[in-house]
Prior knowledge:
This protein has 207 residues and is an alpha+beta fold. Helices cover 47% and strands 14% of the residues. Helix 2 packs across helix 5.
Amino acid sequence: MEGELAKEAGLKPPDLLRLWYLLVHGGEARQGEIRPAMEKRHRLAYLELDLIRVKAIRPQILLELTDHAWRFLSERLGDPLETRGHAAGPILGEVLKALDRLMRARGIRLSEVFPLPAPALGEGELWRRFFRAWEGRRLPDGGIRLRDLREELAGVPREALDETLRSWQREGKIVLYSFDDPSRTTPEDEAAALEVGGRNVYTALIK
């Protein structure tokens, strides 16, 4: 199975790091540029495993990841990497640049990728922060979109905020509701939705 290939093939962290080097450089690189250094024995092993192909041999050997290698690496995101030496740092830098491009293109906040530690908020402090968010971003009908609320309270774990909102509704402090006009619901609203009673709600109103 592909997911067991690293173990079965005896690939070590440095072996995986060479493949990641190729990936972050667009899937190809000259053999002499790859770090950790790619020796002939490494190249032959990767070729046998169908992880790379030789794209050109002159003026220098140009190596390219195979489709199989891309699938293989997608399963190895959580594997340990070689951290000794200087190869991992530049690779991490390229990964962060790619992450930055993706986040900017899709409007993803860093706290969505790396959640902040749960703040030691009592319910009173959370209510005050909720109220400030509501005051600053409420809609003409008096509610606040949950997508805006989550942005304002980005440091609060989603599960904790969801349970608190449900609790406040049960206590009669707020009303959670959907829009009467479904066309007002955006993909961002869907992503921030809260399920209550088997249906999604997108807005919170202080009673």
